[in-house]
Each structure stands twice: as structure tokens, then as C-alpha cells.
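Predict the assembly for these two chains.
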Amino acid sequence: MHIVVCIKQVPDSAQIRVHPVTNTIMRQGVPSVVNPYDLFALEEALRLKDQFGGRVTVLCMGPPQAEDALKKCISFGADDAILVTDRAFAGADTLATSYALSAAIRKIGEEQAVDVVFTGKQTIDGDTAQVGPGIAKRLGLQLLSYVSRIVELDLDARHIIVERRAEGGVQVLKTAVPCLITMLENTNEMRFAPMENMIRAARYEVRKWNKEAAGIADITKIGLKGSPTVVSKVFGPTPREDKAEMLNAETSTPRDMALNMLQMIFTRKPELEAQIVGNV
Amino acid sequence: MSTPTPPASAASKPLTPTKGGRNLELSEALKAYKGVWVFIEHDRGVVHPVSWELIGEGRKLADKLGVSLSGVLLGSPDDKLDAFATEAFHFGADSCYVVRDLVLKGYRNEPYTKGLTDLVNKYQPEIVLLGATSQGRDLAGSVATTLLTGLTADCTELNIDSNTRALAATRPTFGGSLLCTIMTLAYRPQMATVRPRVFQMPPSDAARTGSIIEDTLSMVESSIITKLIDFIPDAQSNKVNIAYADIIIAGGKGLKNPDNFKLVWDLARVLGAEVGATRAAVQAGWVENERQVGQTGKTVRAKLYIAAGISGAIQHRVGMEDSDVILAINTDANAPIFDFAHYGIVGNAMTVLPALTDAFREHIAVRGRKVA
């Protein structure tokens, strides 16, 4: 079987800092990583490969340096890696991104038919969760979003049964392959990269596709031009107008300070006090 | 929600209408799109409260535009869609589009996408809002791609831009360190999702009425590939629902290790509260991810929110800043959380939390006795 896993290289968000005066992102020195949510998708794909054999191709759209993220995926056990990279993709929103990625997946499918496409639940930098559903729609694949478990895959009967996280419970869905799965987080644990794969990854030449190689003819569908959404402004948060009432733990004993704080809150909010006293 | 008015800083860039040769003008045909829609999400007989929260916010947008507000109800003939529509009218909708079909029994992407897409193409609303739930996000992404229009996810504020009359949708960006306002200028409808609890529940007015517009879905079960074969409800015991909790004690990376995080649980037990956490604390594995508060976790509107060892990055802030009383504990007097907390304690959470736990316990014992 042939599985395509879409990944994104993202800045390690825990290390992003905002300049306190200019409110701009300080990108220098912030390391890039594979979007953590995508690793659950990759691991699930590798497990299917362990079970059924076949190939796992990882696909990424991004700047040339995103090949590092793809090499990381090779070290975990992916067979092939393709980076779709072109200046024309810059400024893409989720609609334009799903267009470019779906074109590339079609192209990959010409080499070997694709059975399952995986994506992560969302990225940690965009947090939209829209690209997976977008790719599915553009390729006409059945969409299985927020999948927590693959219950059964039958490649002869061409069907798959999954559990999908819904509000207040889990849906059990049965559909046909090919399909697109967005994998929920914490559903599996990424394997350790064995030494031989790490060596392979270091030597691996990521295939780089520009827009023509990815089969994209219409440049009005990609990048900024293909993006219906417009970012009109970016700004930092504003402090509340009234300042917080502050106590300093060092100026009194913890006990006095705590009693003091309760006094302050409950004087202002007697109904909260009534609820707390009645609650317990 | 407290409105983050953009400061006149270097980063608030004005709109440049011709950037990159993009079409940012609304065509005459698309100007005919009128009205605000809210997709009303229901499952197994219950409407998700986020739908009513969106009706409340949609009402404000519709009034600003001078257009009508409609709910969209898709479901099977045995779903209580008329009762849901009546409720939508009470919360502020003027009308409801209702499609009843057996293939709409239980949410599935394909028939729901077709149902909503067909309605949009036929009745042409300018704005479509959905809850950012697993159902709403699944549906919104598919519908927006089918319609080839703009969709803004997980908005924390919705407004109407006075120059363009476009929907100005604000959401955190760059991993939650800044906010950005996004508009869909040349495409219709403008779509957005909003997470539960971001907007307040609107008041219900039992005297309000509205009209129902029935429509049909031309789809047969045999043409639908995905089958819903079972639904396993979550066990009552492991259902964590902090979005609707009144009192929340939350811990962040400042607690340093999972042992110290237990101090959060101690205080929560005394107050009968739920436990929340930042993304960092969840990623460190100190608590389950159902307890994460913030842009990628839950949005809460607690009566009392105690934040221990939390710096107050936007990612967390947008998930809890609408709580009535926010008490923050942090060693750093300049931590951003003190910019929006109501009460602050500068000190080490490892000593402050136990002191608060004792103080609350005593207070409850004394006051409880007086009441009894």
C-alpha cells in the first residue's frame, strides 16, 4: 500500500518571543521542528506500513530549508520525501495551501496510486485544522478527521473502520479507501529512529518540486493570489484598563497574605463567597 | 469579550488593497449575498451551546449590517428540528433554514457538506458562522473548500469593518503570541469558526418568533460512501468539561514539576473546582490534554480562575480572560498575566498555593458552620 503523510515545518512555538516594544516576532535563533501533531500522523502511517507493507511518502510545502523536517521523517522510517517549494507559494492561506498540496498528491499518485493520505490534526503555528479537510475535498477523498484509532483496514475489500473523536463521544465510521485521515494527538507514540535510518536520512536527497513539477498550471490558485483571506492587521494584546490589585508574598507570612487575598476578593464578590461556601 | 484595540505600534499594518496583484474587490454578483447565518450543531437530541452563543454574536453582526440572522438546521426527520428552531428564535434568529433527510441522521461530512453548500448557493448569505467543535471544524473546512471562499478558524472576536462592511475576524496567530484580524474581501460567503465559551450565552426571549424555510437534500444513502456504524458516548467518570466550570485552578510551567502540580489539585479539591493547565504543562505530561486552557485547548468563562505559575501568553490568555475574577500567582512581577488579572500575588506558587488552600479551607469551615 502507498501512504502519503503531509507535514509542515514550524517554528518551535515554545521558543517564540515577541519584541516588547515593536510587537514583532523575534524569529532569530528559533529552531524549526516538524509540527508535533504531524508526528502522530506519521507514526500511524508507519504502523500501517509495518502491518501491511508498502511505502510511506512524506510531503511538505515550504521554503527550501524545510527539507530538514522531511529528513527527520526519513529517519523515523518514511521511504520517500517530497518538498514542494516555489516562491509562488508564498503568502498562501489554507485554501491555497490545500490546492498546492492536493496537486502534489495527484502527481505522487501518478507514480504509485495512493491508498491513504494522513495529516496531523492541525499545526501549532496556524492552528486552523483546515488544510486536511481542504485536501480531502479537493481530491474527492472521504474525510476522516480527528481519528483516535484505526480499528480495521481491509485492503482487499478496500474499506477502513476508524474511531473519530466527536463532542461527548466517539463516532465509529466505516468508509472506503482511498481516504484522508487527520490524526488526533496522543494516539500513539513516535518510535525511536534506528541508526540505519538516521544514516539514510543524512544521505537522503529530498526531491524538490517547483510549481510546474507539482503539476500546477494556474498560478491564480496558489500563494497570495489564491488566498481569499486577507490579514488586515497584526497587533499585540492590550492590558486591562484597571490594574490588578497586587499582594507581595514576601512582605507578610504566606498565611496572612492568603487570608488577605480572600478578604479582598470576597468583599468585592460576596456572591462568589456564597457559592464557594455553599459548594463544598 | 474585552476588545483588544490595536495599539498604534509598528506591527499594526494598514491594509494594502493591491498587494501582490490580488483581487480584493467584491464583484457585483457577490454583492447580492446578504444576511448572517449560524450553523446550529446538534447531536443525539441536544444542541451544542456554542450554536446559541453564535446566535447571540450573529445577532450583533446582523444588526450592524442591517440584515437578517438565520439559523441552519440539518437533521433527520425524527430530530427535534422545529423545537431547535423555536429556541433559535428565542435567542435572536429571524428565520431558520431546515433540511430533514434520513441521510442526515448523525453527523457525517459528506451529506452535511452538501446540505450546507447547497443552501449557501441557493440563498446566498454573506456570513456563515460555525462552532469550532470537531463537527464544526470538519464541516467548515469542507464547505469553504467546496465554495472556494475564505474561512477563519477559532476567532476570538468578530466585528464588521466600517469601510468595507466585511467581517473582521480576530484570532491569535504565530503560536498564540500576537493577534491578527482577517477579512475575506472578494469572496462570499465569509466563513468563521468560534470555539465554545468565547462568546456569552445570549438571553432567551420566549416571545420572539421567526419563520422556517424548509428545503430538501437530493442525496440517497447508497451514494454516500462513509457509514456511521456506532457512537460510543464518553464514560461519565472520565468526562472533563472545564469549558463550563465555575471555578478553575490552573497551573503552568512555573510549577516546575509534576509533584508541585499536585498543589493545584489540593486547592481544587477544597473549592470543588476543576483543574486547568497551560499548553506547556500539558505537553510536559503533567495533566490530560482535556484540561488545557487556551487557544488550542478550551475557552473558559469561570467565576473564579486561579492561575499558578502561568506567565499569561496570548495563547493562554484568550482561553480564560473573560473569567469574572482572575487571581494570578507568579514570581515575576512583570509577567504579562498581571496585565489582565484582577488580583495578583507576586510570589512562589509552591508556597502561595498551600497557603491559599488552608485559607479557603478555614474560611469554608467557619462560614459553613455559621450558615448551618
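DSSP finds nine helices and 18 strands in chain B. Confidence is low (pLDDT under 50) at residues 1-18 of chain B.
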